[in-house]
Amino acid sequence: MSLPMREFYAKGYRSLKAIAYPMSDLDVFVGQNGIGKTNLYRALELLQSAATNDLARHLSREGGLDSAFWAGLRRSGPQQIKLAAGFAAPDQRQSAKALYRYEVVIGYPPPTAAAFAEPHIKEEALIYLSGARPVHLLNRRGPSVTMRGEDGRRAQVDMDVLNSETILGRLEDPSRYPELDAVRRTLLQWRFYHGFRTDADSPLRQLCAAVATPTLASNGADLAAVFATLAHLRGDTADLTAMISDAFPGARLIVPQPGRMASFGMTFPEFPNRVFEAWELSDGTLRFLALAGALLAYRLPPFIALNEPEASLHEDLMEPLAKLVVRAAERTQIWLVTHSARLADAVTTAGIGKVREVIKRDGATQIKGLKPWGEYEDVEE
Predict the structure, then answer these.
(1) pTM value?
(2) Which of the chain's termini has less CB crowding within 10 Å, N or C?
(3) In 102-124, which positions are buried (b, 16+ CB within 10 angstroms) versus exposed (e)?
């Protein structure tokens, strides 16, 4: 069972000095270059890496803590990154605002630390919030870890966990800690789609193993299998066919019955009898097909983040892309970062979701109208 995300918080990460954001089913962020829109997306990726137990390595790939820390003026005290997400509790009969809030704080290792100068997990917590007194299900401060088991008792836990590892990622007995396991499994299912490659060696242009594939991989390597699953296992390509016709009038997606490998191609009205294979398609056409595979797959993940999906797409594809996003938001949560005002306007026209303007003030990325504690100035919020 997946948990919908209801709030997101990031502090001390790149241009995110401190930001608390109330989630909806469809959140669209638009703004100029260089104001930190992508850092919102990166912070979510970093949060997911707590579940994969890859957080320290993820930060190292970004250039280490020196590159990841907020570079502006700050108060005294240790420099740290704090990430948090609130997830709706599966049974909200007692409180419509019941949340599981996962938090993780990352900082420098102590000067006495040996061997690796890698990021350390300073604090980690899972807190149940239901309007009454907060219930701490996990509480970690340095090497000290306490957890509340299924019997409701809190106890010190002796775990084989390194300073750079998360308890979330090292969870070894999920049956004893079902709430923590639910958060972990939810984060593991998230998908991030950013700049599908379309060069000659792109995974999108290659054949892939013909196995049932309900969800597109982040790099799109199994796109042909996603299409084959819809066409030949589910027998349901109505939405896919309609979206492609909307984007490329008169064109058809061709998905052959797979053997050992799966493939796809397209026909166009100028050459109705000629199937253009994946390796022949234009960059823009291929990228749109990958987005269609991500957003119309048989089983969508509980959360999809799209970063600048309009890249390499013709302006006339913004409305069809918006329809893809809006249709997917009926089945999952969508977080969309874009430079395209036309794409954002097309989503607004659909009448669902929230389109937010990202701005920068005193070097810090902010969302216009959002107060520091995560509420909006406009009364309708």
Answers:
(1) 0.93
(2) N
(3) bbbbbbbbeeeeeeeebbbbbeb
